[in-house]
Amino acid sequence: MGGQPMFVLAEGTERTQGRDAQKSNISAGKAVSEAVRTTLGPRGMDKMLVTDTGDVTITNDGATILNTMDIEHPAAQMIVEVAEAQEDEVGDGTTTAAVLSGELLSKAEQLLDDDVHPTTIVEGYAEAREIAMEAIDDLVLDEELDDQLLEHVAESSMTGKGTGDITTEKLADAVVRAVRHVEGDEGVVRDNIRVHTQTGGSSSATELVEGVISDAEAVHANMPTEVEDATIAVVDEQFGVRETEIDAEYTVEDVDQLTAAMDAEERELREYADALAEAGVDVVFSTDSIDDRAGAFLADAGLLAFESVGNDEARAIASATGASRTSKVADIEDADLGRAETVRVRTFADDDLAFVEGGAAAEAVTMLIRGGTEHVVDELERALSDAIDVVTAALDTGGVVPGAGATEIVAADRVREEAASVEGRKQLAVEAFADAVDVLPRTLAENTGMDPIDGLVDLRAENEGNEGRAGIIAEGEHGEVGNPVEAGVLDPAAVKREAFESATEAATMIARIDDVIAAE
Question: Which residues are catalytic, by number?
Answer without folding.
Answer: 61, 94-95, 386
